[in-house]
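Dear Dr. L.,

I hope this message finds you well. Following up on our conversation about the binding site, I have prepared a predicted three-dimensional model of the protein together with flavin-adenine dinucleotide. For your records, I am including the exact sequence and ligand specification that went into the calculation, followed by the structure tokens. Please feel free to forward this to your student if that is useful.
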Amino acid sequence: MELRSNAPDGPIQDSWDNHRFNMKLVNPSNKRKYDVIVVGSGLAGASAAATMAELGYNVKCFTFHDSPRRAHSIAAQGGINAAKNYQNDGDSIYRLFYDTVKGGDFRSREANVYRLAQISVNIIDQCAAQGVPFAREYGGMLSNRSFGGAQVSRTFYARGQTGQQLLLGAYQALSRQISLGKVEMFTKCEMMDVVLVDGQARGIVTRDLNTGEISSHAGHAVVLATGGYSTAFYLSTNAMNCNVMAAFRAHRKGAAFANPCYTQIHPTCIPVSGDHQSKLTLMSESLRNDGRVWVPKKANDTRAPGDIPEGERDYYLERKYPSFGNLAPRDISSRAAKEVCDEGRGVGPSGFGVYLDFADAIGRVGEDTIRERYGNLFDMYERITGENPYKRPMRIYPAPHYTMGGLWVDYNLMSTIDGLHVIGEANFSDHGANRLGASALMQGLADGYFVLPYTIGNYLASAKLDPVGNDHTAFAEAEAQVAARMQRLLDINGTRSVDSFHKELGRLMWEKCGMARTEAGLKEALVEIPKIRERFWKDVRVLGSGESLNQSLEKAARVADFMEFAELMCHDALDRDESCGAHFRTEHQTDDGEAKRNDEKYSYVAAWEYQGEGNAPKLHKEQLDFEYVKLAQRSYK
Amino acid sequence: MSETMKLVLNVWRQPDATTKGDFERFEIPDVSPDMSFLEMLDVLNERLTQKGQETIAFDHDCREGICGTCGIVINGVPHGPQKLTTTCQLHMRKFKDGDELWLEPWRSTAFPVIKDLVVDRSSFDRIIQAGGFISVGAGSAPDANAIPIGKEVAEQAMDAAACIGCGACVAACPNASAMLFTAAKVGHLGLLPQGQPERYERVQKMVATMDNENFGACTNHAECEASCPKGISIDFIAMMNRDLLKGAVQHPIELD
Ligand SMILES: Cc1cc2nc3c(=O)[nH]c(=O)nc-3n(C[C@H](O)[C@H](O)[C@H](O)COP(=O)(O)OP(=O)(O)OC[C@H]3O[C@@H](n4cnc5c(N)ncnc54)[C@H](O)[C@@H]3O)c2cc1C
Ligand code: FES
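The resulting structure of the complex is given below.
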């Protein structure tokens, strides 16, 4: 396996332009002769499918949801970044590029990030033209806020529903192409495997979730836009049905998986309330613009927050990071919360919580302004906890949220399998070891509207693509394997539910491969995971049949892949014997407890090659060079 | 931990669209008030699995009230008793010990039952495909600040755009009409300057598709607004009716 980044040489400011010029084009009248398969219809998938259809390609788009509008992208609250500099506060493409590389703790590919920053401005134009109702000022101009540790206001938003509005924009563009007959849409249709012919990705095998029917779809290229894998931890802020199956199936077929251990823990989520907990709810990071984070100074202080006088509170983020304060980046804020809770200063019934207090902000700007800014979030908090955050500080705690790791892709967003492209959260490309707030929506849409539609043309125009239909034997074989896997799950008929296994695995991953990791812990996890997997395959109980809607069976197939994938995360975390960004190896910290990188040894992307179930994966390294951004210890003090 | 409650659930069970369904009764002796409604169903499903009984199928995904996937009629009310709240955001502290609940799927011929509490809402997608968009391809947009949009208009468009497409409005309507859903999209796009060129064509096409999909007519019951978890106002229906009339008179289109 060879990792060629295909990042263009020359000045970074010109590299995307030059690259676009150098890429081959498909003649407009030939585009309709190409079939492109897009798996996923979130921000990345829907925007890519719509745009490729606009260009003239025949697109088949798949989602396991009942409508493209339900993809997990819908849940993004806070906003989307763009280097528009509308606020005239000194933002620029270079600054967004710089912030993203630094925020990622110097573990991303400079050329990709620069391109992302360049394209960010086009995304806002495109979305506004589609009718995305971004927040506006009285004069009619777009409004911005500062978000996720940025010192300029470059975040565009639509109340607390930015992801929803951006996704609806992409969904509507996709709907238009469906009505024009350029996109064939398959809902409730789950990709179960990719199919390779002569080493090229030439199609997929799917299962219809309502009927259980297994089918094959052939095309000239395949695009995965299947999202992230935070649900490896069971409890996360992601939607319940997010999973790693599509990416992992591609990995099994030869796509390298990059940096699987880079998982972001979001600092502001509602804490766990009991064993019944099924997911954790994010309270948007934008709340940190007005909320102050604190815990009692003394341990095991059970007084109500209002009874704790100012002098006995520790506003620990303001204390430790005076210049960024409550806006310190996610990884840093999350670890700081864990630290105070581990000291016994956590609040709430479980002791795993810290206060996010709006009393000062309400005093300063009034309750109405706070309601206007965050009303829907405050309502959501009250619905879930039964507590009124206008009167009593919110309780928050970190939770798994986003996965920077993903399938390895080159500058053209193609994986190590020819023709298999990966976009959105499913790839590893732009965020290094830590993603800045409001940058995932930007990346998904950059990939889908403005990068992939060009680069895939280059692939189609240059690859030698023999005619392959879904009658090729490779499809029949893959279908038989999928059918056998589903039957195997149904036949076990053990004693434990799929969820119980998922929870067991998730708990282990949270403890050993979560916010803080140690060599010993990871080694233990690598012993435990195969045992859980073995028990799963002996003792899981999936009732019902494979011929109609069977939600346990769907889940079982997804959890089965987590059973293997979790091991890959731990291998990666163990190999990376440094701390960087969200990957915190307790052995490697600075004197004041920050992540300590080892650039000499670990300035690489870890791309793992599958070696068969139970075998240690093989590591390939893509060396990262930093020509523009100077490597430095991140400091937010 | 707060005290637990004992609840009786009567849940609609139906193996598929063509087989007749019926209620099945379950008792749950230990519901925690901190659970969400769907977490209570998770617990019930876990116990059913233990007993070797097939689990109850229900739709859900984000569990944050935004994806629009969940939807159960609880004691006759879509999404249950709490205003402005989806089923997934409803918490058990809204119920009391000894309550008996009736759980049903959305009922409408335009939303056939797939299994138990899961229905097929693809008719909503087809309404959007008929014209619920602004035709602007990637690459052809002007600078985002080139078209100023007054804050009030932007806010009003956002009020309409907040629709999550859950279908509670249809489930609540005695006629199973999809007027609120359709009007929300027509209103969102029709209010904005970008949406003007296609405004009258859009409304005619979307309403025609809505009629073809077997949704009922609107007779102003306003149950839709009352059950909408996002509080979308029926004023948008009035706005749509005006556009429809104007469109039919001044910009009539051929509908096939
Ligand atoms: C609560 C929350 C808030 C967030 N807020 C922000 C924010 O404010 N700003 C920001 O920039 N980012 C935010 N993020 C992150 C961001 O929302 C996601 O990273 C991004 O939306 C992912 O988009 P995507 O298109 O890659 O994947 P998704 O939206 O997850 O879409 C995945 C798609 O793939 C489909 N799929 C997956 N597997 C299969 C399969 N096997 N077969 C068929 N279909 C499949 C799914 O059906 C779905 O259509 C937030 C994330 C969360 C969880
Ligand atoms: S599950 Fe998403 S709105 Fe209820």
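In brief: Chain A touches chain B through 81 residues (CB under 8 Å).

With kind regards,
A. P.
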